[in-house]
Write a structure and sequence with these properties.
This protein has helices at 2-5, 8-13, 53-65, 80-92, 97-107, 115-124; strands at residues 18-21, 35-38, 70-73. The chain is mainly α. The longest helix is centred in the middle third of the chain and has 13 residues, at 53-65. One of its GO terms (cellular component) is cytoplasm.
Length: 125
């Protein structure tokens, strides 16, 4: 969530190095401390979330190559960020939607992509 992304102590505690901001209108807080990528995605069922995946996944993969830790956040940490992480797990780890969703839900119990994103993720697998 944007709250996590604006909590420097927690981000340092979890050794975050990179921040993927998929919120709309949320500023990046600590430009000198982390590597940021901002991709403004609207949290609407009709938003084509899949079209944003290549740019999101490239940023996450580059961070992984550098042994980085990525925080993916939106406003509430419920829909957009969850959808991006689910898609990333499906793509990079070749997980089914059900398995990827379960992993994200265990890590972030409030995760619940909007109905349009859920439908797109089902078709993505």
């Amino acid at each position: 969530s944007q709250d996590a992304a604006h909590d420097l102590e927690t981000m340092k505690k979890y050794k975050v190095t990179h921040v993927l901001n998929v919120a709309y209108g949320v500023q990046n807080a600590f430009l000198d401390d982390f590597i940021y990528k901002t991709i403004s995605i609207l949290d609407l069922p009709e938003t084509d979330i899949i079209s944003y995946f290549p740019e999101c996944f490239e940023f996450i993969e580059k961070a992984k190559i550098q042994d980085g830790v990525v925080l993916v956040h939106c406003n509430a940490g419920v829909s957009r960020a969850a959808a991006v992480v689910i898609g990333f797990l499906m793509n990079s780890e070749r997980l089914s939607f059900a398995r990827a969703f379960s992993l994200v839900k265990n890590a972030r119990p409030v995760a619940c992509p909007n109905p349009g994103f859920m439908e797109q993720l089902h078709k993505y697998q």
